[in-house]
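stage 2 :: seqdesign
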């Protein structure tokens, strides 16, 4: 399993260079045959609709490649956004890294 640690903000107001690497990284992992990805959200301080969309798109890319994306360790603000948008019922979520 590959662990990706997200830090800072994942949002529309963020520099495009901060959001694009997630998409590119997922594509690179799929190309390398790595299809089990754990996204550690413990360092993510803020996420908006664009960031949520990026996580959903990453999950879909992996699903289409017969893989899986799991998100973990969301700080309360990010966990609340996942819950309000119901992405916590679409994305595979676990409480802590290694859970």
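stage 2 :: out
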């Amino acid at each position: 399993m590959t662990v990706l640690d997200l830090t800072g903000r994942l949002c529309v107001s963020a520099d495009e260079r901060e959001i694009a690497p997630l998409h590119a990284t997922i594509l690179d992992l799929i190309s390398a045959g790595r299809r089990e990805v754990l996204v550690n959200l413990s360092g993510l301080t803020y996420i908006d609709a664009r960031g949520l969309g990026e996580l959903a798109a990453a999950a879909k890319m992996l699903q289409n490649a017969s893989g899986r994306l799991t998100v973990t360790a969301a700080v309360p603000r990010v966990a609340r956004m996942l819950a309000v948008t119901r992405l916590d019922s679409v994305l595979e979520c676990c409480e802590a890294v290694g859970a």
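stage 3 :: structure notes
- The first helix runs from residue 16 to 31.
- The chain has three helices and four strands.
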